[in-house]
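Entry 12.
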Amino acid sequence: MAEELGQIPKNWTETQVSNWLRSIGVNEKYIKKLFEEEVDGEILLTLDEDFLKTKICMKLGPAHLIIKKRDELLNPQQKSQEKKKHNSANKTELEQKNNPKSAQCKDAGEAPSAQVHVGDLEEIQTAQKLCILTQKEDCKPRPFDQEGIDYMYVKHRVLQPESGAFNLISPCHEFKSLAVAARLDRLRLQAKFSHEVLKFATGCMNIRSNGTIHFGVMDSREDAGHMHGEVIGIPVKDRDIYVDALDYIEKSYSSDSEHVRQCVRPPRFVEVMDRESTEKMYVVEVDIVPSISIVKSNLYKVRLPKFNEQANKVQFDKESILRRVGSKTEPVLDRDLSEFIQRVKDRDAQREEAETNQFHLAPLFCQDLGRKLTMLMTSGKKFIENEKWLIFITNKFKPDDLSHIDWLLNMKIFCVFDFDPDSKVSGLCDRYLKHHAANMHSLQSYRMSSNTSIKEFTSNLHLFEQTSWIFCNGRSDFKGNDMPCEEMTWIKTKITLLRESVSLICKHILPKGAFQVIFLLTSPVEKPLLHTFYEFFTDMEGHEDILCICESENNFLRWQSFAEGSCGTETVDNFSVVGMKMSHVNATVQNVQPVKGCHRKHLPVFVKGICVLETNKEEEMASLEILTVNHCDETTEQFISEKKADIEHQFFRGGRVTWLNFWLAEHKHVGEVIERDAYEDVSKLLKNAVKCNPEQSPVKILNIYHHPGSGGSTVARQVLWKNRKDLRCAVVKPSYSVAVVAQHAVDLREYEENDSQRCLPVLLLIEDSDKEYLDDLRNELEVAINSKQIQYGTPCFILLSCSRSYDPERRCIDSPLQNVSVTHKLSAKEKRMFAGKREVLEEQYEHQFILTFVLMSEEFTEDYVQKFVKHLLQDIDHRSAVTRLIHYVALLNRFVQNSFISQSHCEALLALKMSMERFHQYEFEKSLSDQAKLVFFHLRDEKTHIKSIRIIHPLVAKEILQQLLGSQQTHSDLAMKLLCENVLFEHRFGKEEYLSFLRSLFIRRSRISKGDKCDSFFSPLIEHVCENENQDKAIELLKEAFKRFRDDPFFAQQLARLHYTYEMFEEAEHWAETAARQLPNNSYILDTKGQVYKKWFQAKCKVIDNESKTITAKNTADAVETALKALRCFQDCERAAKADTENINNSGYFAEAEVGCDQLKLIFSLQLFANGAKGREECLKYLLTDYIPEELEDDWEPFHGHLKNLYKTVEDALEWISGDLSYFQTDIDVDEDEIHLSPEGKINNPLRWLANKSFKFGKYFSDAYSTAFLKTGQSTTTNLTPQQKRMIIYRLGGGNVTSILSKLREERGAVDTLNQILSLYPSNPENSKFDQRDIVNYTLASITLNCLSPLAPKVPSLKVLQHLCHRFPADKKKCLPSALFLLTLLFWPEDNDTDRERESKYEIVQSAVQHMEKGYWTKIKDIPPRKRRLYTHFFLGSGNGLDKFIHKRKFEGVVKSTSLSEKRMKWMSGQAWKKPEIAKMLKRVSGWTDDGVVYLEGPQKQKFRIMPLHLPSLPHSNEDITFYLGFTFRGPVACNIMANK
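Predicted 3D structure (tokens):
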């Protein structure tokens, strides 16, 4: 495996390390964890088992395996290196032999070879230990003899070595581990502790020096495994043991014990922070302060206590005089005693002088904290960056500080890690919520499951929308189980959650440099806060963008002592602002914020005034970007003067227009934004839309269709900006559900209004959405309006949709009262405006700053773009990484709309390593070539602030790609390189978006409804490669993509489609099988599999037709087998589609019928059956009976059973399609997913298709005997069997409901055809043996003929048809939906019915409707009813008998309209129903509404519920009403409901 990776381990990437770990059998969860921790080759070499166990939470076994295999991996490399050095480095080898220590140090970091001798191995391990020891971090001791200091040590950090007296004031230090004694019983521990303290104290007092003795700090003599001065800590169960131990003072000193008491301070217990342990440990310290006023002229003798094990009690040594000698405490020898006593006065004098001098120190230096805070907050700029998110970590706020948090309220806060459990009750959270909306979370909320994507996770937690308030230590006001706990319990239970939360934010959600972390230390610092700093410091890979603000220096000390170990004293000082009051912080930060503090936003109101829009209420409507009356007025003058030029040239270089662009122009800070002609057009349509009109819907849609990059979005936003004072305006943010947007839109409309009937209309801008989303939103808003009983015709919402289109003019012609187009083509007036503006801009800015504006003023003509790109690409370095990046971005921008590459990905590709985060953007731009600087446009996501790049315009991207590739390279070559670009593919940050674009590049199909030029069968790239290169290249690309995306079944599906398109059927079969194996219940993939066999079958039939051979069973057996495989696949597809409740896929039935008909054609073409009528009869005998001709018996032996079922297969499929079409309208354009949720071949006109297939089906089974009938007519029907008649009926289009009703739409011949159909039924149908389907078809044929020719003699009376329908099954569950439909139609009561007749008929209708309703919900599944609108076949007319049934087709022509959607809107709004022609034809039915439900009166005052076809037409109060009655396959419906006046 190592050889395959082809590099030395040190240079391995994270992915290569993961691959190597897999190869040695490490569990995938550990591999994933190491990948997340960014373990590359260099880090792999430094790992040890301890790290793997504690940090990665790995079991001992795999940890040992990794280290062992890693060391084995290094051995051969070490050997080869030694071999290479052997000849050239003999001298070095000799030196190493003579100087083994140097050799050890050199090799200490390398893994020992398996062949090294035991002695050598020990030496190497010793050297490694020494190297590890020298790497431990230093730390400072606790400030000497200061009360109230909250200090902390960190385990394994090292204090300065033990010291002797320096200047008597600076304390000398002595270390004792006390590791063994600390676990002894009370008596022994006290004896040991007091012995060491009193020995040290006596030595210090006798030489008059301050001192501190530390217990829990290693003396190298005590433990060779630790460094001298290393902080370890000891457990302290009872502090009184140590305090009471000093009671030995009185027993140890015969005199002066009071002096000793005064000089020896009580023990201090300094906590030891250990990130790997949950046990509390302390360093116990005793300060010795021999003040001259106490010790002057005295010499101290001590009898040290010692526990005698034999005597089992504490005994005292003989009295001795002790002194500090260097770093030790030693007794004064007899020979030195006289001199030592004589020098007491000298020592007193020195002490007195030292004490005097310490009070005459230089005055404290005062830092400029204001400037320091400003520089840290702004990253050295003049203002705080809007594009940076802020993360705050805080503990309990003091009440006074809560009055000074205005600076926080203007910040863009991503999240707050709050360690105050009372924060929501009385702390910072409570105060913040009065101004802003925030979501309450716990650390547990940030635990992401493995099957959740980052996008889903951020959406679920509403990150980037509202501040996430993370209660890190529980909430006192919360009833859940997240309770506050003391710090050691917190470490045991929550530190892992904290680690995961911080890692998720820093490594997956926010990129480095896009956020700043601010620690607000407003109360004493506890361990959890220190852990939080460590996690952020580690995951952010340094201190850049970390800031600490702390008013109390005492609180800061504990923080500082911990932080200095991670990044050093100077660094901690540089990013910390200490000693500044919160009120001063508040004023200082507000001074550098780009907006004024406490600014109030205003909205217009119905009575022409304004109201205040509270910020927290605005944030609750998170799906809307609300445009206020005084939008941008909060911007400071300083910010405007500093940034206005940048904002303007950003726009003219191709950036999306911002509200600040309009504001600056409106206030004359910059020139005007050009108003294109389309602005006037939209304004006129908007003016009409906001007028009250009882005939119009309260929700209106206006569409702006624009060429990509032509300024359509600018026009749309101009409309909002100019109307913000008269309407309530907002932009709908992407990724929110329709229900949420609708709710927020209603909230915005009614905000601060008293009466929901009297509100200003809301103008909503929806960008780049499809028609389905718009219709859903309109539907939701109409339901909301209806529920609030707002008067119909009141303009409530105007949806301004702005969508890209390659043919905007055609869209405009389709619906001129609703659509406006924006193109690259400029009118004469626009040309003059653009030319004038260009002159002004060229005087102000260099050419590259207004690049897109220049191209726009040239109308993006092909010649100009070509010349521009050619000039741009001169002298470009084709081999550089930046040019490779231009290639990739251009490829994506050319074939995937709205695509981009994150800046993080670009930096990875260019192998940039940023030295300073604050100069991050500057360093990135500096790395780009001149060409890249011109063509790249830098984007910043408005929500996440994540930076990315794209080419300045799609047409420029297309031309760059063309010219850069030239004739030497193809699109497929470039796509392959991009696909195999590991750095981009594996880059962790922004991975979801990048892979989404890459995936779309290969399998997203074009859709006109999505703004593409056409509907395509493959992705634009694949189609381009097939057309301009060859299909083999396209196949190669998709195969590589399939592997790259881990055998994604949808890539396999595309490969199957591509192969069968080029008639490579064996390969197509393989890929279809591959896809189906992975997703065996996906109806679309099963459809693809069926299509493979269908196309294969058709190809085989074509070969058979083209050959001159006689068509026999033998040479068609292969084709028949393939057809049967196709049928099986389509039947599987049908079953899967039926089980899928969220999608509708009818393709299996259509394909099944097509294959069945094609198979019948093949069978009938056999030589055996080709002999005229006799041959066709023989064929029918074979298909419909048990008869098998001898010629077929052997060759078709496996197929006979299936072929004899072919008649039923095709008939059932056609019947199912007919039933489906009879329920729903066929003209609704339900847009399907452009990747995989769409069938292979879309049937554009299903009604015509069904008629055609029914004709073919009937023809095959009736050709033998239908010729005579079709020529002579009725006279020959007596010779035909019922089956033969049925097949002729099928052929004539009378075999199913939909085919019969479609005759009403035929202009010629329908009456004759229907007469022929009826003549095939018995002349006395009441006495004939009809099955259920025959009754349905006969009855509908009769009704249809009556609609076309009311006086036709073959039409039976209503009574006859009613009598026939009595023969439907009594158990309505067994009735066909069409039979139930006929029962509601034929048995609808008439005015002249008796009460008994009415009661009987209502009972029949009621029973039928109940079962129709059930059938409807089975059909509709979970699909919104709007997407599959019911089709109303007939309306109740004013005639009698069959004449009372008026088909919809009869009066649809009275409504003149240019487009289907406009026509539909006229019917829905009620405008069309008012035509006098319709009032003459239809009969109005009386009823009433009760709580929004329509009823009419049945017999004996019973209520009969009727469904309203268009909900908004219902009156809001309970009213008597009249309406037109329609008949659908769901039941009767009420149309054009009108309240009685």
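Annotation: The chain has a mean pLDDT of 84. Residues 60-88 form the longest helix (29 residues).
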